[in-house]
Amino acid sequence: MANHKQIAVVGGGLVGKATAVAAASAGFSTIHVAPRTPLDRRTSALMGPSVTYMIDAGLIGDPETLGVPLSRIRIIDATERLLRAPETVFNAAEFGHRAFGWNFANARLGESFSQAGATRDNLELRAASLGTARRLDESWQLELDDGTALTADLLVGADGKGSSVRKAADIGVRERNFEQAAMVCDLELGRGLDGESVEFHYPNGPFTLVPAGEKRANLVWIDALEVLEDARRDAERLASLLNEKSRHLFGVIKVVTPSFVFPLSMLSVEVAGRDAAVLVGESAHAFPPIGAQGLNLGLRDVASLNACLNAANPGSYGWADAVSRSYAAARRSDLTRTGAFVDGLFTSLLSPHLPAQALRSAGLWGLKTVPGLRKHAISFGMGQ
């Protein structure tokens, strides 16, 4: 095969685009295999370190032009259980920050990432999907669904929960499905959030309003699948439930975009890289949308891979194997602790058992009253 690249990145989401730019910026000939997909209407709350990485990597410019700053986080226990936690507020100024992060529209981020990729002469974009992949003679032999055949030294999977790259590399996966699902859409509030993300905790999961500028908010509502599907089918009932779930704190709430409901699961891999293949983003990990960890963790994957590529010697034999091993070692601790954090946070909220509820309540009391614990929690949540 004459068509050879040092790195092939598979997957067209935000993490895939960021990875392709990182690989090309590190000096490697790179192909980004990304099929055309519908416009991503979701949003992402990205914490300070993620935003700093995007700026340093040339993926975005001034975050103020793309996103809405998140200056406060409010957690309200709305479970009405016997053991309830106090309302807890985190203010960015308390921790020396102007904002914890920014809330971005994924479509605008994707456009900015694509523009960054277009400036790299050593980055080729192919609007296709991966057909087959097998490793032979120290190279990955790839066939795309558009008939293209090529080889690559390093194969990067950024192709989501059902990752073809993960299957080709024979990397084991653990997955847990929940009864809950999530609804996302944009809302218009009677009273704006003024930079404050508000998270109401209910027995089936959080109901979160994230500021999206002026009186707009992005909704992330986790509940039983049938509850969300029933609400979607009845506009009046949905409007009533939104006002009820928000405790009527923000005036009349109106839905201004179509709502989307998706099932929830957790996914983790036995190793994030081996045999000259690495996994980033949801190919390696997936969580319920709680604690703003998903894309933040994915961008930390990209930053780690970028560091491994910058330290690599592409002229040496087996350099791609060495990168996959060093990347897997670099990501092991972060993936393990973040997965445990999200799982503990989510399952403690869902648990009907008093010991779990008591532990969660005590933890939130600590977050409200103990300065050292507050600082540690914010540092962890921001990925520092």
Q: Could you outline the blueprint of secondary structure elements for this entry?
A:
Layout lengths: L3 E7 L3 H12 L4 E4 L9 E5 H9 L10 E4 L1 E6 L10 E4 L9 E5 H13 L4 E4 L3 E7 L2 E6 L4 E9 L6 H5 L4 E16 L7 E7 L2 E7 L4 E9 H9 L1 H11 L8 E2 L4 E10 L3 E2 L2 E3 L5 E2 L7 H18 L7 H32 L3 H16 L1 H11 L3
Parallel strand pairs: 1-2, 1-11, 2-8, 5-13, 11-19
Antiparallel strand pairs: 3-7, 4-7, 5-6, 9-10, 10-11, 12-15, 12-16, 12-17, 13-14, 14-15, 17-20, 18-19
Helix pairs in contact: 1-3, 1-7, 5-6, 7-8, 9-10
What does this protein look like?
The protein is α+β, with helices and mostly antiparallel strands. It folds into two domains: 4-63 and 105-175 and 266-365, FAD/NAD(P)-binding domain, CATH 3.50.50.60; 72-103 and 179-263, D-Amino Acid Oxidase, Chain A, domain 2, CATH 3.30.9.10. Helices cover 35% and strands 31% of the residues. It has helices at residues 14-25, 48-56, 106-118, 164-168, 225-233, 235-245, 294-311, 319-350, 354-369, 371-381, and strands at residues 4-10, 30-33, 43-47, 67-70, 72-77, 88-91, 101-105, 123-126, 130-136, 139-144, 149-157, 173-188, 196-202, 205-211, 216-224, 254-255, 260-269, 273-274, 277-279, 285-286. The strands form three sheets. Strands 5, 6, 12, 13, 14, 15, 16, 17 and 20 form a nine-stranded mixed beta sheet that branches. Strand 14 and strand 15 form a beta hairpin. Helix 9 packs across helix 10. The longest helix has 32 residues, at 319-350. The mean pLDDT is 89.
